[in-house]
Design brief:
36% of the residues lie in helices and 13% in strands.
């Protein structure tokens, strides 16, 4: 969540941080504060290998992380203070849902046929239209991120009358078409379950990136950028959902992974009409995520440089799914999480589960990145789509309406070279 603060000490910090990954983190299994009742891992060599994959991913993040220059420290602290005052004055901290505006209808889209990973898909792009509120700190900087102004989504659509859609929100560092289509088992959702699939690209990811890698800037310590990135992720997802409904979708389900699970939960607090929401391996608190994942050395350094985690947490309240009640009915909420997740620790999923009123949840014996090979995950997703009537809606097609300002696309055929 936070990059180290300072000049000329990057390599030293990384060198000191690495032993922490292969020492302290392996000495204890993740568990909730105060002995909260979380499902416990059944340790085995198989589970250890899954955990190792999580740790390797996190270690690569530490080794390759960017640094916040000392000269930026004052600006970031000032932005946090000014934003908190503004949010409090406008009532957004007391009622965070008021911070989020309803996006206007999507009228003009661009379509292009693409291929990736054996999939033929339709690339949808449109002007996001999101800008921070007038007077918000960091507003002009955000407007200057030009590649991020254009929103993108990958679509797999069946021929003929409109079918139900599942909108799949990718996680942090995703955004590559092959990774996203494979990670969500898009072939299974589209061909076996017979659904249309839409995969939006998160701000700062894929073709929207503004740094070296997709995701740079979203969770790397410039906290107003984090607020605006998460707000735009919700805005763009809602615009896409509204557009699908205007196209005649008989049902819309939302399915998010990791950071996408966080985003799905936040959308569920603002959109009442969703037919189903699945939050997979979700994060639910960015500050808690930083405290769980960042080496203590870096956290203490950030505090010495003047970052108050309580103030940061208050700032992030406007984009917290734990600060708003879900508007999607209880029986339409579903979750899955790994009992040995080292990237979004089980406490994150547990907190969202409690906040959501303890809906149907599937805990699997695995880690964060192992979700893809867990049979329990696929069963849970199918169960959610079945129990909420999304699968049944396949037989209640309505004709698709033409989109204003766009041309009808040539339907892509879905023929993955490998079964997912």
């Amino acid at each position: 969540m936070i990059r180290t603060v300072g000049d000329g000490v990057g390599m030293a910090v990384r060198s000191l941080a690495l032993p922490w990954f292969f020492g302290m983190r392996w000495m204890s299994a993740p568990e909730g504060p105060g002995g909260s009742k979380l499902p416990r891992p059944d340790f085995s060599l198989r589970l250890a290998a899954k955990v190792a994959a999580d740790e390797f991913f996190l270690a690569t993040e530490v080794v390759s992380m960017n640094l916040i220059a000392a000269r930026e420290r004052g600006r970031i602290q000032q932005e946090i203070s000014e934003a908190r005052d503004l949010y409090r004055e406008r009532g957004w901290l007391a009622r965070p849902s008021l911070y989020h505006r309803t996006p206007p209808p999507l009228r003009r889209v661009r379509r292009q046929q693409e291929r990736a990973g054996g999939f033929a898909y339709e690339q949808l792009s449109f002007e996001s239209g999101f800008v921070p509120h007038p007077g918000e700190p960091g507003r002009q900087r955000w407007i200057g991120y030009r590649p991020n102004r254009t929103a993108h989504a990958r679509l797999l659509r069946h021929e003929g009358a409109e079918r139900p859609w599942v909108v799949c929100i990718p996680g942090y560092r995703m955004g590559n078409a092959t990774v996203d289509l494979t990670g969500f088992r898009a072939g299974w959702l589209h061909e076996e379950l017979g659904l249309n699939v839409a995969i939006p690209v998160l701000p700062f990811h894929g073709p929207r990136r503004v740094g070296r890698r997709g995701g740079d800037g979203f969770l790397t310590g410039d906290f107003l950028d984090t607020v605006h990135a998460q707000t735009q992720a919700v805005w763009d997802t809602r615009r896409l959902i509204h557009w699908l409904r205007d196209e005649g979708a008989p049902a819309v389900a939302l399915y998010g992974l990791s950071l996408g699970g966080y985003t799905a939960a936040l959308v569920a607090a603002l959109e009442a009409g969703l037919d189903c929401v699945v939050a997979g391996i979700p994060a639910s608190c960015f500050v808690g995520l930083a405290r769980a994942n960042a080496p203590g050395l870096l956290l203490r350094a950030a505090e010495r440089f003047g970052f108050d985690w309580n103030e940061v947490g208050e700032l992030l309240r406007v984009v917290s799914p734990l600060a708003m009640p879900a508007r999607v009915p209880w029986e339409r909420r579903f979750m899955f999480a790994g009992v040995a997740d080292r990237l979004a620790p089980p406490q994150q999923a547990h907190d969202l589960w409690v906040h959501w009123g303890r809906p149907r949840v599937q805990w699997y014996q695995g880690s964060h990145v192992s979700f893809f090979v867990e049979p329990d995950v696929q069963r849970l997703v199918r169960e959610a789509l079945d129990r909420t009537g999304v699968l049944a809606a396949r037989s209640r097609h309505r004709p698709r309406r033409a989109t204003v300002g766009s041309q009808a696309p040539r339907r892509p055929s879905l023929r993955p070279r490998q079964a997912l």
